[in-house]
């Protein structure tokens, strides 16, 4: 296992996933990556909101993260709706005003 934090490794992994997401005007942000619980929360933004295949993108991210990171036990991928606004940014063109609904943790 690397000395690099789980969040940093997940962010680096997401940057590799970004070309296809960005190609369609989407963004992503790693909100949480807890190595103790194995919980990862990724938020999609941009044109992912309202996209008819955002649920497919979310499922692909989940599946691939489970395969890539043995310490990950639970992945939540949130797709924007309304609600809180995040201002964190990371490399790869991700971040900015990503919003998600607080109504349901599994909201797509």
UniProtKB/TrEMBL annotation:
<protein>
    <recommendedName>
        <fullName>NIF system FeS cluster assembly NifU C-terminal domain-containing protein</fullName>
    </recommendedName>
</protein>
<feature type="region of interest" description="Disordered">
    <location>
        <begin position="78"/>
        <end position="108"/>
    </location>
</feature>
<dbReference type="Pfam" id="PF01106">
    <property type="entry name" value="NifU"/>
</dbReference>
<dbReference type="InterPro" id="IPR034904">
    <property type="entry name" value="FSCA_dom_sf"/>
</dbReference>
<dbReference type="GO" id="GO:0005506">
    <property type="term" value="F:iron ion binding"/>
</dbReference>
<dbReference type="GO" id="GO:0051536">
    <property type="term" value="F:iron-sulfur cluster binding"/>
</dbReference>
<dbReference type="InterPro" id="IPR001075">
    <property type="entry name" value="NIF_FeS_clus_asmbl_NifU_C"/>
</dbReference>
<feature type="compositionally biased region" description="Polar residues">
    <location>
        <begin position="99"/>
        <end position="108"/>
    </location>
</feature>
<dbReference type="GO" id="GO:0016226">
    <property type="term" value="P:iron-sulfur cluster assembly"/>
</dbReference>
<feature type="domain" description="NIF system FeS cluster assembly NifU C-terminal">
    <location>
        <begin position="19"/>
        <end position="75"/>
    </location>
</feature>
